[in-house]
Amino acid sequence: MRHLLTVGRRHLIRHRGIVQVANYKPQKVQPPPSPPSQPKPPKKPVSFSLHGESWEDEYNWMSQLTDRVAMRHMDVYMEQEEKYTEAVMSDTERLQSKLQSEMASRLAAELSTPPVRWGPWLYYRRVEEGKQYPVLCRRLASLHEEFISNKSPAAGFDFTSGKKIEQKLLDHNREAERFGGYAYEEKSEISPDHRYLAYTMFDKDNDCFKLSVRDLNFGSLCSKPHADRVSSIAWAKNGQALLYVVTNDKQRPFRLYCSMLGTDAEDVLLMDESQENVHLSIRHTKDYQFLTVNAFSIQSSKVFLINAAEPLSDMTLVWESEANVHCIIEHHQGYLYLFTDASIQGKPVDHHYLLYSPVDSSCSPRNWENVFVNDQQLIIEDVDYCNSHMLLVTREGRKYGLCSIPLPLANGKVGAPLKEFNPQPLPLPDHVSQILPGPNSDFYSSTMRCTITSPVMPDAVVDYDLKSGKWIIVQQQNLLYERTRVLYGSASSISSSQKSSISKNLSGNEDDDITWNDLSDYYACEEYEVSSYDGVSIPLTILYSRNKKKNGENPGLLHGHGAYGEILDKRWRNELKSLLDRGWVIAYADVRSVVHLFAPSTISIYLALELMTF
After folding, report:
1. What is the pLDDT of residues 14-26, one digit of tens each?
2. Mapping DSSP to helix (H, G, I), strand (E, B) and coil, where does residue 552 land?
């Protein structure tokens, strides 16, 4: 009986299944959800007229930061934009999460700048955990050498064990409390006697930079000087006097003052420029013997000299040229050195050159002579000084160089080609894209700091001892190198010529086990000269993964720039590593206008980004 019931039940279930199949109707394919509508901010046209032209700005209300109603509308609109972005990008959440994890793993662990040694002190900035703004600190180097470690590129100062001997000079988080929750520092200068710190902070309520001076022995603010709208500052008289330039209500730097610290005397007005097109700036020479006042206008460029020991004395005009030129004057043992790009005999030049003149020259106008013969092939990009040497950043074509020359210069050689000065070359990695001299505040130290950038190497902060020729990497992110080596394995694709060039660069420091931690084993950097549609030759730099090269199949990202002939910043960027590892090609075009480029290589560049220009 149970068996018959079971058979009947199976038959009924089978019958119902047939009925269900017979009555089944396929469901209609649901259309994809309609994309969210893009938010549109309200339009409130405002009319403007200037230089005979009139126009309407429909979104001028967005810039009215003091209008509370407008800012509430702005908050609502930004929330709508965020929701719209989330909806449009919702199908890429997994990819976003993966990329975020990749990029987070490459962030540098150090939240501190490498310490700069100046006299007896080590100065640096660091960010405390959970705080938004950095803190300027210092330590006595002579008493705490055990906390300095430069053997590893990622190391620098042992901040954990050395915290107890740290002196906080300026906490930007406390400054933010003074200035309404916002802290932005424009200028900061330690006095040459290490007693005072002068700095300017942006006052959001008054829309200007406010000058403050802090006594580092007591940590308190000095009673003077206090000034608003300060654009530049410079110390004089070994830290007893501070000179500063203020702007007018149109933000034109037009007045120069001198404040004597430790006195009740009023600040002295040294210069008042009434011409509306003249802008003033002040700076000190590296040895603190002189101050230079630059007065730039649309007609001319002038530089005045002030004796730092007597800042209230008369200033002397030492240089005058056409408008819109770069003029930096330094002093070394009785000679003034001028680094400029002013025209030569009325003919404009597109490079800088170095001049010199005795301080006590009685000629009027002052006679300036070339330190080196102008060489169109060997360009001097930058120059720095210490008491014993001159540091030169040079460039031949697209290849950068770094060398030093002993000071003072031999009079018999002045005016000769640079090579006749027997410059001492300093080691550099391959594919250098820029060399940036550091603060190098200690004029009497032969150690000079530079930051070396490259498309295939994380930035390296390097200290060069110009007397001994020794060098050491003070700070460089090497975590990236280790993880790339794990990703790609051992370097097998690097050529013998590349190995020899790398070993040659390191040969100047054979006693030290130092490597540049570059990524050229895994990423190739190639340089080309490409003709644009109008026949102009454009320098093109291409970066790609050696393991992901596919002829004609790689997507690409092209960076371009078209303003004032400036060279693109081609330093290594961690965020591009995710693209390179996925086979993308990164290209940099140093252009002066928007052009269409095609590289003469086997790699096809797909223009994924338009050239950026003004």
Report:
1. 444 444 444 556 6
2. coil
